């Protein structure tokens, strides 16, 4: 198993936009309303903290590679090599380069097989499925007060683990 975790603040922003555009999810309301719902864990995948911590613990009992989205953005080839090592594969550098090229955010955003542009249950006029693919976009969405409240939530939820995220 390969698990990719992303920091809680960027997940909140990403998931808010997903809720807005994907049919079948409840109306998220305002950003402020949604952020409270998210912190309460009343979203489709449940509590972010329980989810990431559960997989973090599972890696101790099962063969599981735990990766971080932020690391993938920072150095994609390094993370590709981690996956190769985990899968006991050695590939020539040109194959690594090809994987890197074809799994870049822009390549996937342009690929209908990855961007869900032909998927009938999403309204891409509201938001594309693959929006920005960046780290730290939460800074463009959170108010100062929301950030303070969220930091308190994060400290409470993550106080019982050594798992840490870059925000």
From TrEMBL:
EC number, UniProt record: 2.8.2.-
Entry keyword annotation includes Transferase: yes
The keyword Transferase is annotated on this UniProt entry: yes
Leading EC class: transferase
Family: Belongs to the sulfotransferase 1 family.
Organism: Staurois parvus
Domain of life assignment: Eukaryota
Name the record gives this protein: Sulfotransferase
Record-linked InterPro entries: P-loop_NTPase, Sulfotransferase_dom
Keywords carried by this UniProt record: Transferase
Sulfotransferase domain residues: 1-161
């Amino acid at each position: 198993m390969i698990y990719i975790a992303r920091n809680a603040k960027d997940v909140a922003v990403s998931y808010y936009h997903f809720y807005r555009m994907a049919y079948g999810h409840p109306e998220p309301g305002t950003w402020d309303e949604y952020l409270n719902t998210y912190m309460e864990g009343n979203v489709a995948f449940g509590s972010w903290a329980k989810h990431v911590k559960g997989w973090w613990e599972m890696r101790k009992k099962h063969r599981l590679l735990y990766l971080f989205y932020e690391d993938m953005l920072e150095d994609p080839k390094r993370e590709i090599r981690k996956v190769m090592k985990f899968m006991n594969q050695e590939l020539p550098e040109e194959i690594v380069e090809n994987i890197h090229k074809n799994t870049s955010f822009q390549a996937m955003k342009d690929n209908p097989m990855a961007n869900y542009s032909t998927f009938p249950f999403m309204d891409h006029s509201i938001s594309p499925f693959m929006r920005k693919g960046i780290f730290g976009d939460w800074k463009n969405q959170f108010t100062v007060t929301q950030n303070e409240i969220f930091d308190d939530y994060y400290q409470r939820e993550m106080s019982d683990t050594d798992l840490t995220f870059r925000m």
